[in-house]
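As agreed, record copied across for absentees:
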Amino acid sequence: MIKSVFWWQTFSHGNTLCEVVRNLKRLNVDRVEIKAADGTVAFTNPAWSAWRGKPNLTVDLVAMLHEQNIQVFGWGYNYGKYPELEGDIAAQQCVTLNLDGWIFDVETQLIDLPDAEKRIHRMMKTFRGLAHKRYAGFSSFPCWHNPKLPSAIWWKRGVWDAIAQYIDFWEPQAYWGEKWGTNAVQLPIDAILQHREIKDLPVIPAGRGWSDGAGKCTPGFIDEFVKSSRDNGAAGVSWWVSELILKDPIITEAIAQILP
């Protein structure tokens, strides 16, 4: 069972690369998913996305994580305004940084475009033509229709149908919360089922590792999320987001204790 964590800003994990890697290892994950692009921009600008004037993800950092038997995936937020360029940037980062794969984060900015499906095809064809055999995943909303009323469509199924032709796994953002009326048991079930309706690919639900107005994250909720995901055939679990998780020693320990 894959255990991974999303990563937003490298500089928040430590003052040196060694410290960054040492802190990450506290989570006992075998994959880290590091932001390496935003739309058409490799993640070096604007300034807040860079680490001490360096890119958020470097060849040296990837090599150090690989030495620890940790896979390194890049991820980027996709807007779809220039789809070929977004696919090109993702592929360039994979090849240049020696990444194991890439996760496409597609949300409202792209989904709501009238020709979103065509833009997905253009972006992914470019990526697949340049990234060689890197793994690719899709991360978006956990459900594209109402689980209790399948005829109530929340998001365009066509976007999921389009990207399913190019990816190797689903990684739905199953961030449960009281204000959304969702919980750590049922949401991963709904996410797994709805993504398999599109295409039967491995599903790695991403859970919430932070507490805010949406609700509290506790070791109990983490255990429920993992058990529910595992019982319903998930290929693994992921967590958002490492820099917040590592600030909470209780949640850090709970994630570290998850067994393969």
In short: The chain has one domain: 2-256. The mean pLDDT is 95. The CA atoms of residues 188 and 229 lie 6 Å apart. The first helix runs from residue 17 to 25.
